[in-house]
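Q: Could you predict the 3D structure of SDR family oxidoreductase?
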Amino acid sequence: MVFTFDLKDKVVIITGGYGYLGKAIVTSLLLHNAKVFVLGRDRKKYEAAFLKKNKLDENLNFQFCDVSDAKSIESAFQKIFEKESKIDVLINNAFYSKGQSPEHMNDEEWNFGIDGTLTSLFKCIRSIIPYFKQATKGKIINVSSMYGLVAPNFEIYEEYPSYLNPPHYGAAKAGVIQLTKYYASYLGKYDVQVNSVTPGPFPSVNVQKAEGFINALKKNTLLDRIGKPEDLAGAFIYLASDASNFMTGQNMIIDGGWTSK
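A: Sure. Here are the predicted structure tokens for SDR family oxidoreductase:
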């Protein structure tokens, strides 16, 4: 038997699917024939991201979900399962945060960022487990960050303090990698694969307007450029497909070589 990257008949759930990187992931999933459910709170933003000539792809669906709320997550998964009779892949891409200062961040900002980056992801994993255990298969793909592996180069941010990576973000993203390994071990006996993808420098369109900052980011990669959303999407196709059935507990780093220096 030859496994391919074709996702036909796969039901894929993705949180944070209409953001800068999420949109590219969803678009690639659709190109590889997956049936995709984008979970989010704002249908208008979803439609703005994916409407083409006033139409949406027939394999694309919106499902309301607030990832900060365990009951909202459980309800969203249940509704999708009732409609499709299965769930094959969960991609945990959403996060929320506030606060930035390494010295003056208050407790509420710290807790909010940890909750939005790590705890919300845990809630999604916890809620999908019953479906994957029942099916004795499934795939969970978590999104970490290069700052879950290495500390920021603070020299880059000296002239651009508004872009400074906050301390709770990297701490939580490091936790995402550990949580990935934990649940890969815990769910392995059910033939559930749990892996993470770690993006490097993928600044948003607005951030790219700061040419000096972007040049500084480029110099920290081996490829001398920043990442484009489409550079990231292929990792998710591989991990969502049957081609990755023997891969679990791993962290795929897509960073242009940043963490290899």
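Q: Anything worth pointing out?
A: DSSP finds eight helices and seven strands in the chain.
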